[in-house]
Design goal:
The complex is a heterodimer of chains A (119) and B (110). Chain A has 119 residues and is mainly β. Chain A is built from no helices and ten strands. In chain B, 0% of the residues lie in helices and 45% in strands. In chain B, strands 1, 3, 4, 7, 8 and 9 form a six-stranded mixed beta sheet that branches. In chain B, strands 2-6-5 form a three-stranded antiparallel beta sheet, with no helix packed on it. Chain B is globular, with a radius of gyration of 13 Å. Classes of the chains: A mainly beta (119), B mainly beta (110).
Amino acid sequence: QVQLQESGPGLVKPSETLSLTCTVSGDSLSNYCWSWIRQPAGKALEWIGRIYVNKRTDYNPSLKSRVTMSADTSKNQFSLKVNSVTAADTAVYYCARGFWSGYNWFDPWGQGTLVTVSS
Amino acid sequence: QSVLTQPPSVSAAPGQKVTISCSGSNSNIGKNLVSWYQQLPGTAPKLLIYDSNKRPSGIPDRFSGSRSGTSATLGITGLQTGDEADYYCVSWDSTLIAVLFGGGTKLTVL
């Protein structure tokens, strides 16, 4: 059974960099494509971006200038960095397997981790 | 405002049927498959429908999906109080080169 677990600081100061890691168990990171998704309190889900096994990345155009994703196959982890954060980046951040041609969905998902941007 | 448009809320009585619409355009739903997710309060989203009309293992056949033109629909029959949740549609947009989420629909089972 594939499981994903997000980890990282729950509090980030404005203008600094948000950094999160997703650890995958029960499957190899090398087999698929992996995404980050976020959800501000009371609002809709928003796709942040995805990273392929060959390290190719695609980002949401609205966040592209501030987002970087990377992967460490030796640790079976992939990571997210969002720089120059503001209060608008406060959200629950989820990692999930998906989304690519032939697998046009997200499954499974991590439980999510709340990141608050505040001084 | 989401590119994929869903009604903010729907409601129906236990045992009844409800449908949730997801309206897009030619660059997303019009040419790409749709998935649907159920998000119970305080939990991560859960895959309900993939490839527009397929159910993952473990999802009861009370849940169904369809796609026509630039719209998709999630149907739920035999409503239960446990179905109260937010529901989201998702599709790839070939012009934006991005995954799109709908704005979400809150289902209330009266």
